[in-house]
Amino acid sequence: xxxxxxxxxxxxxxxxxxxxxxxxxxxxxxxxxxxxxxxxxxxxxxxxxxxxxxxxxxxxxxxxxxxxxxxx
Length: 72
Fold this sequence. Notes:
This is ATP-dependent helicase. InterPro entries: DNA_helicase_UvrD-like_C (IPR014017), P-loop_NTPase (IPR027417). The protein is mostly helical. It has helices spanning 11-24, 47-54. The longest helix has 14 residues, at 11-24. The protein is elongated, with a radius of gyration of 20 Å. The model has no long low-confidence stretch (mean pLDDT 70).
């Protein structure tokens, strides 16, 4: 948990930073954890909620292969 200089737990600030990170994801959001997942993940009920909070993933435009002669 995030702790203030005086040693108090800043749970609301930690929650705010967690959701700011989620909502700023533009293309893809990957959440990993080491020992135990964040307690704030329990507030997210499904993958659909994650997609809604993070924004819809943009569909990639098909790549076009260029020829060397396209630049001449």
